[in-house]
């Protein structure tokens, strides 16, 4: 760990032993608002995904050609030549051209259907888990133009069922000094909090004051993941490793019986499913949500600006 990084107020506790005790798993999840799993995925699975994502950056000339691919070292002159609006596009840390290629990767979307993941969320929900197709990759290039993601609650952006959970999985080793995810433990029990405008992904920062909660965090290894409730406040830590790309996945799940907001079934970005599906071989991954009987709830823009909920 970088000696300049102070230890977290709370360290992540591995929830793996709770997988065989679903009632205890649900109790801890409701109390803390998150669950951390050590080595949940096989390291080889994560490194294969890392190779795919970094391969796209390599094709675009955004990696240092003199360094090993898996090291993820950016081609700094090429990155510094990007305009701020190019690299800050849609909060994913890279250009739209790169992201279109990533969103077209069948293996990227297939990862959200990992049997172990569906089984874990099924145990957490006490019913069948539905994986949202709106999968997100964070491909954070090393650039001073990028802003750190501020504290926020996902529900403001997702809506639909409040029981939606996000899986944040690092694609490679992500110590705190590389910019891992920090969780405000128990903040899911505070309800929907007020926000203010902010730089960084999402454009909104949750107003935090006198809540009495503590941040929890840790050093992630490839294969680790953290899952959290849509009302749990979380934030990214700054990348203190010059030149290093940080890769992670945001995958979302909800109980299949719960309502959903229509945008959760659309691609992440200005893309169309027909375009992204070109060349895919697994029909079970395409338009699978059309086999569901969802109740749809409209997106409520007004709840994103509850400025009366301030200190």
UniProtKB/TrEMBL annotation:
InterPro entries assigned: Phytyl_CoA_dOase-like
Cell membrane in keyword set: no
Top-level taxon: Bacteria
Alphabetized GO MF terms: dioxygenase activity
Keywords: Dioxygenase, Oxidoreductase
Full protein name: Phytanoyl-CoA dioxygenase
Species, as recorded: Paenibacillus glycinis
